[in-house]
Amino acid sequence: MNPAQIDLSKATFSDEIQGEAISYFERLFTNTNPLPVSDFIKQMITFRDSTSTKDRVTAEVFGGFIKEGVVEYLHFAAVLRRVTDAVQAKVGTNLFTFGIIALQACKEVLHRYPKVCTTISSNRSFSKFPAELRSYVNAGCNGELADELLL
C-alpha cells in the first residue's frame, strides 16, 4: 500500500488487537512485575517490518509515545530515532510505512521538535510523504503548527 494513501482517521481495530494494545500499557504501568520500557520498545521494534494490523497498531503506539510524551530521555530519543530511521527506508517498504504511520499518529506535536522535523524534511523520500504530513513537518521545522491546526 502506498503510504500517501493511508488514512488512519477511519481505522478500526478488532477487540483482540485493542485488548492486546491495552495489555501492553497495563504491563508497563503495573506495580507488580512491570514490563521495563526498554523491553517494551524492543518488543515493538520486532513488529515494525510487518504489514499486519498488529504492526500498524505498533506504529501508532510509537507515534503515541511521541505525541503524549509517555517515555522520557533516552527511551524517548530511541523512539524518535526508530521513527526517523524508518522513514529513511525505501519508499513502499514495510519499514517506511511504519515510519509514516508513526509520524501521522504524532503530527500534532511535531512542531515541538524542529531539529527532528528538519532531519525528516531533508530525507530524499520526503516528497513521497502524504501531503498533510509534509505540511506538519514543514511547519515543525520552524517550530510552528501546521495550517490545518490554526483554522
UniProtKB/TrEMBL annotation:
Q: Name one GO biological process term.
A: nuclear-transcribed mRNA catabolic process, deadenylation-dependent decay
Checking InterPro entries in the record gives: CNOT1_TTP_bind, CNOT1_TTP_bind_sf, Not1
Choose one Gene Ontology CC annotation of this protein and give it: P-body
* All residue ranges annotated as the CCR4-NOT transcription complex subunit 1 TTP binding domain in the record: 57-142
GO MF, one term, reads: molecular adaptor activity
UniProt superkingdom: Eukaryota
Q: Which PANTHER family match?
A: CCR4-NOT TRANSCRIPTION COMPLEX (PTHR13162), CCR4-NOT TRANSCRIPTION COMPLEX SUBUNIT 1 (PTHR13162:SF8)
Q: What is the name listed in the Swiss-Prot or TrEMBL entry for this protein?
A: CNOT1_TTP_bind domain-containing protein
- Per the UniProt record, the source organism is Panagrellus redivivus
